Structure of Aminotransferase class I/II-fold pyridoxal phosphate-dependent enzyme:
Amino acid sequence: MNKIDLRSDTATKPTPGMRAAMANAEVGDDVFGEDPTINKLQERVAELFGKEAGLLVPSGTMSNQICVKAHTQPGDELLCETTCHIYTWEAGGPAVLSGVSCRTLDGDYGILDLAQLEGKIRPANDHYVRTRLVCLENTHNRGGGRVYPIEKIEAISQWAVANGLARHLDGARIWNAIIASGISGKTWASHFDTLSVCFSKGMGTPIGSMLLGSKEFVAKSKRIRKLFGGGMRQAGIIAAAAIYALDNNFHRLEEDHKNAQILVEAINATPGLKLEYPKVETNLVWFEVSDSLGGGKVAFEKLKEQGVWVSQMGPNTLRACTHLDISRDQVIHTAKVLRSLAPKPVPVSA
Ligand SMILES: *Cc1c(COP(=O)(O)O)cnc(C)c1O
């Protein structure tokens, strides 16, 4: 069997249909706001999430970091969960790019409860940073692709508004949250001032993310995008890929979620393998390999020998992601390979 690449849902490649859409895209200079395909995408996604405007940017990291900068001044602080992407996987962006410190709170597999945030706003006093922004992530990557319980988001959001804090959502995989929960993009987004969404996760698009917010916020962000070197020219070819993905690859995320359940079953049936968060809700399967099976590195190598590529995320931690380019047959094969990691049952002696 060919290589089965479950390392990330960023592994998806543009299909022939998507490539044709890209080749045929009408384009213009987007720094001048003259790319019709980008304008169309920005309007469509803004509408989908009930925001006034959107801004296409090269990556989810840039999108989040532009939002952090636009919401803050140097010397401010943001509140976030310890394992969130903005803090853990964006190369120290808040500190480097915005002069902002992150106050991290340990969540329950990525999920924060309002009680953890209460009391974390610094008093107005010359000694302290200024608490300015709350960032949440949905679905939560390191938390096991969990969908944020909407009532927790509502409570945190209301508290943030009451305390004058801005609210940003890292919605790199909000698509998966929408499909898994049946809750609309508009509803999720209504609890935030701004959000960031990625087209390059699981939907076949080679590049592209979008930040969304008020017209005023997006105008401010456009200037920061320029500052960060993310102003693009005839990037309508990217927008065309995203439009194609929304039309063709968004609703099929449900298949990825079903495929992930096949891996869940295999892991649950294999002694020595254990899911991190026991209820996999979307396409990310985080699991632990016990030392008795040799730990993460040994399992990683054994899987690779049989064509199954996963990510090693810690000494005992592996992650497998299902996505557009992974067929059901490949998932079934992967499930078999996972089960084969456990030692063979001892044969009854003759
Ligand atoms: C992938 C990801 C991003 C953005 O990643 P880029 O590679 O910069 O596009 C942001 N947040 C989360 C939760 C992610 O998983």
